[in-house]
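The authors assume throughout that readers already know how a fold can be written as discrete tokens. A single example would do more here than another paragraph of explanation. An entry of this sort, consisting of the sequence and the corresponding backbone structure tokens, reads as follows:
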Amino acid sequence: MEKIDVRLDAMDEALVLRTGELEKRLEGLNQLRADVVKDREQYLRQEVYNIKTAQYDSWITNVNNRLTIIETRAIVWTGALAVIFIIVQLLLHYLNIVK
């Protein structure tokens, strides 16, 4: 009978040790899960990324188009002023010859 009691006590102690070990492992897994959730919150979802990049692409295209229009206007005005100055120079040259 004593052997059975000793054996049962040993089994109880082993069960307590095993339970403690499992609790430590479970605590470690819970900590790992918390770290994974925290890391996941730091990343941007694919859907949000696609929407934002589409908005930025649209904005960049709009800015490029407006810049092209401004540059084209500047080139046209520069050319027009050059033509006007050439005409004025020719008029002044011919007016000096005629006098």
Remarks:
- The CA atoms of residues 26 and 72 lie 68 Å apart.
- The chain is about 95% helix and 0% strand.
